[in-house]
Specification:
Length: about 120
């Protein structure tokens, strides 16, 4: 993989609130719900409704978002390609965590069963 430090820095400074509406649009356009999106986010990060709303209201960066998250112990089971990168090969931990979330949102939008998205089977 090429030097991605500029890309990693850009992701770190991006606010979760700026991307969140795109997540909602993506899953709802494919017939999934905001509640299902929240279930995926809560599973990955340990956030709940109140803490997620605080992140959005206070415009936390992805760096802050994941720094304050409690990552699910099975997050490492999220593999595959997202945005042209193999998730398991991403060296920067923050970028990898953001791509974990992107992958879960993609799986939700593609109609994958929730138990598979949440790596329970």
């Amino acid at each position: 993989m090429n030097d991605t430090s500029h890309h990693d820095e850009r992701i770190a400074k991006m606010t979760f609130a700026s991307v969140y509406p795109h997540y909602i649009t993506k899953v709802e356009k494919k017939g999934r719900t905001k509640e299902e999106l929240h279930q995926v986010i809560f599973w990955l990060t340990g956030y709940d409704d109140n803490s997620l709303q605080k992140v959005i209201d206070e415009k936390h960066t992805f760096q802050d978002f994941f720094q304050n998250a409690t990552m699910h112990p099975n997050a490492h089971l999220i593999t595959g390609t997202i945005c042209g990168y193999r998730i398991e090969e991403i060296k920067n931990p923050l970028t990898q965590q953001v791509r974990y979330l992107d992958k879960l949102v993609d799986e939700l939008a593609k109609g994958r069963q929730m138990d598979k998205i949440l790596r329970t089977i």
